[in-house]
Write a structure and sequence with these properties.
By secondary structure, the protein is mainly beta. It is built from two helices and 19 strands. The chain has an 18-stranded antiparallel barrel. A hairpin with a 7-residue loop joins strand 3 and strand 4.
């Protein structure tokens, strides 16, 4: 599970800058700019500079650093008859002023093919790949070297019922995540999903989804691990009025670990979002996300003794934002984020049949406040700055830290 929040600015343009600033909060990067996604063909050049007062996210001996990110993004979104093709690629060069051991060249690429077959069948195929530098929030190893993360994903989805009130779908998703240094975090996953959706009228739809995910940690910390997750969720989207939209999912998730059953999870997971635009210039958004993100473990077995260690995490994230469209060219956004981490670490040692268990249970939280201003003097040029303050308490898997981050970017788009 990856915790995420909505993009801070109205028209986020520099993917590299977004990665840096969201990494400062220990959050995932925002999605690509929807306005650019709708262009049939575009090229974007951007430059961003981020200054973080606590780049490595430590409690003592805080050190500030400046990250410079230069990015090039190209995209294609074209329809041919009943088919649609989409390609999107961003390449970036990221350079730190002080911690130059983390300098890296990153990329994010994706492609999608959609075709309608007959009058009621739609096939969607997509693939994506990326290479980025993970956040400094939890991992110990990535503070000493360039622990880049390489991700590859591929998915298929088949939906029947495009224009009626009822539709069903089946999907498959495969992912492969590898780390340059911490290979014990490498993960391969295969997911099958099935769903049904009912739309009683144009303003509402709801449905049921079931998914099965089988994951493998082939390198493990000591012993390879296999994880089996099953999830059943109710999903809904409702346009309450012309100013208010509600969407969300609520489900029950079950995780089972083959080697380390202490990390098994049973519980409620889900997400919800509310978008409210009471006037033409101001809009509000509230989000909630709850999921498990178990951190990994180990198992050591000898002739006379054995030891297992487990690490569990349950995350609840809340965020609220307000965007003011001051003029056609200027927008400002304020955002508040609160994340609660319920974490547990357990170590069980067995010597000559005698078992002892040590555990640590602590809840941590992350609070962040952000303010961003976006200026688009002409259609092809965009400028923006974000100022963020973040504060995190210590938990089982993370030290306490706090700091500030300022990021400014300039982008130029040809379409």
């Amino acid at each position: 599970m990856t915790v995420s929040v909505a993009p801070l600015r109205r028209r986020p343009l520099a993917l590299a800058a977004s990665l840096a600033v969201m990494g400062a909060l220990g959050l995932s990067a925002p999605a690509a700019d929807a306005a650019e996604d709708n262009l049939p063909l575009f090229l974007t050049l951007s430059q961003s500079v981020t200054r973080d007062s606590n780049m490595l996210k430590v409690e003592d001996n805080e050190q500030a650093d400046t990250l410079s990110s230069t990015a090039v993004r190209v995209g294609l979104n074209k329809a041919y008859g009943r088919q649609n093709y989409r390609l999107d690629l961003t390449a970036s060069h990221n350079k730190y002023s002080t911690f130059d051991q983390f300098n890296y060249n990153g990329f994010v690429g994706s492609g999608e093919f959609v075709t309608d077959v007959g009058s009621n069948l739609r096939l969607t195929a997509n693939a994506a790949a990326s290479e980025t530098l993970p956040k400094f929030e939890d991992s110990r190893a990535n503070r000493t070297g360039r622990n880049t993360q390489t991700t590859k994903r591929a998915a298929l989805d088949l939906r029947y019922g495009l224009y009626g009130r009822m539709s069903v779908n089946a999907g498959y998703n495969r992912s492969d995540i590898k780390y340059r240094l911490t290979d014990f975090d490498n993960r391969k996953s295969n997911t099958w999903s099935f769903g049904a959706r009912y739309q009683p009228h144009d303003l509402m739809n709801y449905g049921l989804t079931y998914s099965e995910t089988d994951s493998e940690l082939p390198d493990g910390r000591v012993t390879p691990e296999e994880i089996h997750r099953r999830n059943l969720s109710v999903v809904a989207n409702w346009r309450v009025t012309g100013f208010s939209v509600l969407s969300g999912s609520l489900g029950y998730s079950r995780e089972r670990y083959e080697v380390d059953p202490a990390r098994n999870f049973n519980g409620v997971t889900g997400s919800a979002a509310w978008a409210f635009t009471p006037a033409g210039k101001v809009s509000y958004r509230v989000n909630w996300l709850r999921d498990t993100n178990n951190q990994g473990g180990y198992s050591i077995t000898g002739q006379l003794a054995s030891q297992t260690g487990s690490a569990n995490r349950l995350t609840n994230q809340y965020s609220a934002s307000a965007t003011w469209q001051a003029t056609a060219k200027i927008a400002a956004t304020a955002q508040l984020t609160h994340i609660r981490y319920d974490e547990e670490s357990r170590t069980t040692t067995t010597v000559l049949g005698q078992e002892t268990t040590d555990s640590d249970n602590r809840a941590g939280r992350l609070n962040a406040i952000s303010l961003g201003v976006d200026y688009q003097p002409i259609r092809s040029v965009n400028l923006g700055c974000d100022l963020q303050h973040y504060d995190r308490t210590a938990s089982v898997f993370s030290r306490a830290y706090s700091g500030r981050a300022l990021s400014c970017s300039l982008g130029f788009t040809l379409d």
